[in-house]
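Consider one such protein record:
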Amino acid sequence: MGLYVAIYLCLLPVCILINITRSDIIKKYLKFLLIITLSILPVFRDQTVGTDTSMYVDFFSWNMTWADWIHYGTELGFVSVIKTFHFIGIESYFFYLLFFSLLYNYLMITGIFKLSVNPLISIITYITISTLFFFNFNVIRQSLALAFFVYSLPFMFNKKYYKCYLIIIIGVFFHYSALLLLIFPIIYSNIEKRFKFTTIISVILIYAYTKLTTVLLGFLANFTGATRYNNYIGLTESNGGKICIFNILVLIVLTIIASINRQLFRDKSFLFFFYLFIVMVFTYFCVSFLGLKYEGPGRILNYFYVADIFIYPYFFNIVNVRYRMISYLFFYIFAFTYVCVVFTYVPLHGVLPYKFSPYVDTIL
């Protein structure tokens, strides 16, 4: 946790420098520094850190045929990386984590700076409240699919839909659940005229999806032959109900503020992220209280968590300029406090206790 605190403290001055500098070259170097800094924690971790890290370390050592990988149910993009590393003789899992962490943070940070109306608030949210920074410690394949989604959003918002779809499809080759994301360009193109209708239909579909979870898992187990879907059926879990309640309260507050400042609803980008935030809160409610299993089908929740990164900046931008720096400082402290409280009560993504990789210990 000490390394995370150090990274968080370094985050603020770097982001401020990126915001105030006018030199594009300096901005690029600072963004590069930010990507490297954020990749340190996931790269240096031991295989015991992260819920699924040990499983992925085993994946990296498997020398199976393409047919065996497909039968196992593993996506071809992920398999391609493993086979490429095997071909060039890389064996240590440290280098696999290095590649995936750098790619993940590059896509996330690049997407944030291209799209966010306030990158500083988005970066703070990314490594704290959204918990998506820690998501890369757990499900490497889906985290990459999510990062490709974030990277595709600027193209979607600029109506370059073919590029958006292409990037999302690349994400599908790392996690099949990213097929869900193909609907979002359609939703975005109609969000201004059909915001309420789209939101209501999405909530109804998520509820139906929750109730059909067991049937869906059984179908996938038979269709793909992968045993992990049968394993998901038997899992029981107690997810963070307190986090869910916190998100509901945040949604209520944001709705009240947006209702007072109606100009926000004239912004198409805001409408999309507000829609995504509502769907995220309801999906979390289904995971926490209605039986949607996070391990497996419930992980679609993480795609909706992207809204966290981009929704808060809109509200900070309507704060009076005189009080904006104070509001930034308050949020900076609050976000860190939130993470500390969450990690105290919830073993989030298996990040704690953090332990360095033997490879790093050898170097040091």
